[in-house]
Amino acid sequence: MTVTSRKSETNPYLEANFGPVHEEVTVADLTVTGTIPDHLDGRYLRIGPNPLGAPDPDAYHWFTGEGMVHGLRLRDGKAEWYRNRWVRSGDVADALGEPHRPGPVNESFRDFAPNTNVIGHAGRTFAIAESGIRPYELTDELDTLGPCAFDGTLPVGYTAHPHRDPSSGELHAVSYFFGWGNTVQYTVLSNDAHIVRTVGVEVSGAPMMHDFSLTDGHVVIFDLPVAFDLELVGDGAFPYRWDPDYPARIGVMRRDGDGSDMTWLDVEPCYVFHPLNAYDDGAGLVLDVVRHPKMFDAERLGPNEGPPTLDRWTVDLAAGKVIETRLDNRGQEFPRIDERLTGRRHRYGYAVAAGPETKPDDDMNSVVRHDLVEGRTDVRSFGPGVGVSEFVFVPTSTESAEDDGVLMGFTHHRATEHSTLTILDAQSLEAVASVAIPARIPYGFHGNWIPSQGGGPSRSPLDA
Questions:
Q1: If we measure between CA atoms, which residue out of 139, 146, 133, 17 comes closest to residue 92?
Q2: 435: left (phi over 0), alpha (psi -120 to 50) or beta
Q3: Peptide bond into 162 cis (omega under 30)
Q4: Helices in 349-432 by DSSP H: which ranges?
Q5: Structural contact between residues 70 and 95, judged by C-beta atoms closer than 8 angstroms
Q6: Alpha carbon distance 167, 397 (integer Å)
Q7: Where in the chain are the domains?
Q8: What is the pLDDT of residues 437-463, one digit of tens each?
Q9: Over 90: is that where the pLDDT of 305 sits?
Q10: pLDDT per position as a tens digit, 396-433
Q11: Across the beta sheet with 42-49, what order do the strands follow?
């Protein structure tokens, strides 16, 4: 399917490799350089905004483009296929001349195609977003089945960032929706994809709560000063912006709590899209987060106020305070860990580092590996002319040690306008293999490795 549109001359999130592609592609038997490890049997999927038609460059916000999923199927050392597909919300189906897919939608977002994350759970594939947007279920080949409410158990919308408990395999989430007023919802999604627990939590207003932190014993929510503004809706603009009068705080409650046990602790004003991980540490908690000093204040078209740094927040519950420490000054985003250690003490973390340039298309050009025990950071630069998207960690086996595995993600090569799936050794950051993709994959948001056995739990190194 090919869609035509015009090129923007003023909006960086419609230019260069932020700009949309206009064709759905299916390619089989892709060229592999190096050796794809035998244990990689599954699909690497990633999603991002890819607007249809011609958005107004003066008003277009990167977070609002229609979702497009990109995926590769790896097996037996081969890259069997690459596909990219728009998620068929109502407006996408209309634009492509197709019937609407059946399923329940939140009427406030009936035509919005999720564009923020794509996950595997209960043997199913879901494209997800936040702010009241329903998940959309996809086939293994990335075609849209339709919007989903987890068999009627999801009350309104979901989140872009659920976290999987490494022991139970359940997905924990904190979801927000401007229509809920001063409330967000903590939910637990069972291994058969049913919401089995819902807790309402009162917050300061209507914040943009992109992610949260989970430990073995606690849920941590980020109530930070990017909030819903009804006036922006009337102007047709992205409806969240920096509010200097909004409190900056985190809330800590036990995972078995009902919200009444929530402890609120102040932090310095900032914004957090993505925590790296969190864990319980005796009397308190340790939160490693990517901290932005502000968000959507002066820059209103995308997340370009920084630099975002890796910080550690040590939560002293007895004293009721948070000690904030800088772990790494370099600009970085899209932090990931070995997710078998979600909510548990971790040593290693990975992120995409920002370069010295200021234009968004020039920013991300390196992958970093943090050793948080030795206090060491290693950097793999791809050099000028190569852009880097989020890299995810895949362990060598379910029993292998932390950091024993590979990192995989998309790189974009400006000279050829093509993209590559790049696979690195997680310990050395040396190249293991690459898959040439005869198409351009625009910069996007999040993705995951979904093994052929499904998206369920794998054994934690701490359980070995």
A1: 146
A2: beta
A3: no
A4: 360-363
A5: no
A6: 16
A7: 12-463
A8: 999 999 999 999 999 975 444 444 544
A9: no
A10: 999 999 999 999 999 999 999 999 999 999 999 999 99
A11: 26-30, 78-86, 67-75, 42-49, 447-451
Q: How far apart (Å, rounded) are the C-alpha atoms in residues 300 and 19?
A: 17
CB 369 within 8 A of CB 426: yes
| Architecture of domain 12-463 in this structure | 7 Propeller (2.130)
Strands of the sheet containing 309-316, edge to edge, are: 275-281, 284-291, 309-316, 321-328
From the number of C-beta atoms within 10 Å of its C-beta (0-12, 13-18, 19+), residue 15 rates as middle
Distances (CA, A) of 455 to 166, 223, 375: 11, 29, 32
Using alpha carbons only, give the angle 157, 389, 359 rounded to the nearest 5 degrees. Answer: 105
Pairing of strands 348-354, 332-336: antiparallel
Rounded distance, CA 333 to CA 274, Å?
8
Q: Which amino acid is at 231?
A: E
- Nearest Cα to Cα of residue 205 among 225, 231, 234, 232: 225
| Distance in angstroms (rounded) separating the CA atoms of residues 158 and 156 | 7
State whether residue 446 is helix, strand or coil. coil
